[in-house]
Structure formats: structure tokens, C-alpha cells
Specification:
0% strand, 76% helix, mainly alpha, elongated
């Protein structure tokens, strides 16, 4: 049962971090005109493509920070279990895939996001384990 709640807490925290950072990105990199209608996939694809490089990198950062924080929280609550961190990572990766399928993103952005989330998930898990115990000399 602990794994379930650890996974749920990690997923919720990851989602909140991604949401907050993406919203901040919309403020930092506000478009010149009005945002396109989200139901118009073609207009949204053009909007994403027209975004400056820092805005695209900010998106990768948002995904990465969400993965790190979610995996950290899942690992801490799960008392070092790897399953909650793995489920958080899978949740973020599925989010990236669903977003890319709904609104086409540049291929490099998708690849960078997946790579960054994989590394960030591992980092969050390792941080969640806490400091390593000091080694004892067997002399």
C-alpha cells in the first residue's frame, strides 16, 4: 500500500511542478499575438515551431524538474523502493508522448525531453535514497 501512495504522491507532485513551470514559461516567453485555438492541431504545431529556442528548452526543463521532484518524493515516501520512481518516470514519459501526438513538436525537442526525463528520473530516485552510508574499513 505504501508503494501506491508513494507513486500517487510522486505523480501528483511531478504533474504540479510541470504545470507550474510550463505556465511560468508562457509568462516568460509570451507570444507576440494571441495563442492559437488548442483544438486546431495545425495552428498549435506552427505555434510550437515558431517559439524561440529558450522557450523550447524551458519546456524540457519543466519536464525534467517534474521528473526529478516526483521521483524524489515517490522514493522518499516509498522508503527507497524503486517502483514509485519508475511509475513517476513512466507517467512523465507518457505525458510527453501524448503531448507530442496531440501537438507536433520538433523531433529534437521530443528526443531531448525523453533523454532529460530519463536522466532526471534517475537523479530524483538517487536523491530520494538519501546519503550513502559511509564505508567501513575492514582493516
Amino acid at each position: 500500500m505504501r508503494s501506491f501512495f508513494a507513486s500517487l504522491a510522486g505523480i501528483i507532485s511531478a504533474g504540479l511542478v510541470v504545470f507550474v513551470l510550463e505556465q511560468l514559461g508562457h509568462v516568460l516567453f509570451a507570444p507576440a499575438g494571441a495563442l492559437p485555438d488548442p483544438s486546431d492541431a495545425q495552428a498549435m504545431a506552427e505555434y510550437v515551431t515558431s517559439q524561440p529556442l529558450p522557450a523550447k528548452l524551458w519546456l524540457v526543463l519543466a519536464w525534467s524538474m517534474g521528473a526529478t521532484s516526483g521521483c524524489f518524493i515517490g522514493t522518499r515516501i516509498g522508503q527507497g523502493q524503486a517502483l514509485p520512481a519508475a511509475l513517476v518516470a513512466a507517467f512523465i514519459l507518457l505525458g510527453i508522448v501524448s503531448k507530442v501526438m496531440a501537438i507536433p513538436h520538433p523531433l529534437w525537442l521530443t528526443a531531448a525531453g525523453i533523454f532529460a526525463v530519463a536522466l532526471s528520473s534517475l537523479a530524483g530516485y538517487r536523491l530520494g535514497l538519501g546519503p550513502a552510508a559511509p564505508r567501513q574499513n575492514s582493516s
